[in-house]
């Protein structure tokens, strides 16, 4: 029993190919997941024997500078021993091996999927399917029915979109794309400012548990707000991409789908990864040094990485996004 074949019979070739790809992708994730579990177990078993963790646990007399301006106090390095051990779970010697393995796995997955796709294309007789589907969109014909030219291949007259009209619509579409991307970056900057304000508030709160773990509380609330922003903007992006693609008036259905897919890819890539890129490459890089800390608007001190490293914030960000994004899978299974 092949689910892709059943999907093709019920819903057509496009859904059938998507079902085949999804099944292939899910199957190929199994070896990657197994290797990831082994790497995680390696970090778990070597957590207490790690040299970095042991040095931090024994640093009872190492006094560190306050992490914020007004409400934070000096602290000892050994206070972060739990976070240092948690960091070792995701950042150890096996992590390098896993990164190399994933790079090779991605290449193998792509090449083997090309072979599988070629088999399906031959078995389902889809060799010339794209060429057969290249028909003018009714919206395109209705818009440019008064402007015609002779098709150089078929020799028949057909609606034609003037170059000036196509260029102007394309410029408007590109401007809309850049505007939406700038909106994403603005949302990320707003979350960064929230974290700067929240860390002062959490450090001064009277609740001892929150006051002691104010960095974790700041990261947790910031990640949750960022995720809600991501999911809210996703709804807006899909509508914007749909409107911009219709504004371009693509000639055929395949051109419309390619244009829409490109916009959605750009939106999704920037929306999902901008905050992750900030934590991985920018968080804590511009905080300054004791006696000369950099501040935003000369008021809020720029956020530093957690004493055990920026990986705690990055793992929290990735974990929340990947966990809640699984709702899409449940929706795909639940909806017809």
UniProtKB/TrEMBL annotation:
Pfam families: Anoctamin. It is found in: Membrane. It is a multi-pass membrane protein. GO terms for molecular function: chloride channel activity. It comes from the Eukaryota. Keywords: Membrane, Transmembrane, Transmembrane helix. InterPro entries: Anoctamin, Anoctamin_TM. It comes from Tetraodon nigroviridis (Spotted green pufferfish). GO terms for cellular component: plasma membrane. Belongs to the anoctamin family. Residues 8-336 form the Anoctamin transmembrane domain. The chain crosses the membrane at residues 21-45, 95-113, 170-194, 214-237, 265-286. This is Anoctamin.
């Amino acid at each position: 029993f092949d689910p892709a074949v059943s999907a093709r019979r019920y819903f057509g070739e496009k859904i059938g190919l998507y079902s085949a790809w999804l099944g292939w992708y899910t199957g190929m994730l199994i070896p990657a997941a197994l290797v990831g579990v082994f790497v995680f177990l390696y970090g778990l078993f070597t957590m207490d024997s790690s040299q970095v963790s042991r040095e931090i646990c024994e640093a009872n007399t190492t006094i560190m500078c306050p992490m914020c301006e007004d409400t934070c106090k000096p602290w000892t390095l050994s206070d972060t021993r739990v976070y240092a051990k948690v960091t070792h779970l995701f950042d150890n010697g096996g992590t390098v091996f896993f990164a190399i393995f994933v790079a090779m796995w991605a290449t193998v997955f792509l090449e083997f999927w090309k072979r599988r796709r070629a088999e399906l294309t031959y078995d389902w007789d889809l060799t010339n399917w794209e060429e057969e589907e290249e028909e003018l969109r009714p919206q395109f014909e209705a818009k440019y029915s008064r402007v015609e030219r002779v098709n150089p291949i078929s020799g028949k007259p057909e609606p034609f979109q003037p170059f000036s009209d196509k260029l102007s619509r394309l410029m408007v579409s590109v401007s809309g794309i850049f505007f939406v991307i700038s909106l994403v970056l603005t949302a990320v900057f707003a979350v960064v400012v929230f974290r700067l304000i929240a860390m002062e508030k959490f450090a001064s709160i009277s609740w001892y548990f929150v006051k002691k773990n104010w960095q974790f509380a700041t990261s947790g609330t910031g990640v949750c707000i960022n995720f809600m922003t991501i999911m809210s903007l996703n709804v807006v992006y899909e509508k914007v991409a749909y409107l911009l693609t219709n504004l371009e008036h693509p000639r055929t259905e395949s051109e419309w789908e390619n244009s829409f897919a490109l916009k959605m890819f750009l939106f999704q890539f920037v929306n999902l990864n901008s905050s992750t890129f900030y934590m991985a490459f920018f968080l804590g890089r511009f905080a300054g040094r004791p006696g000369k800390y950099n501040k935003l608007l000369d008021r809020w001190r720029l956020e530093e990485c957690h004493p055990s490293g920026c990986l705690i914030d990055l793992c929290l960000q990735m974990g929340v996004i990947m966990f809640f994004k699984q709702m899409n899978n449940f929706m795909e299974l639940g909806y017809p």
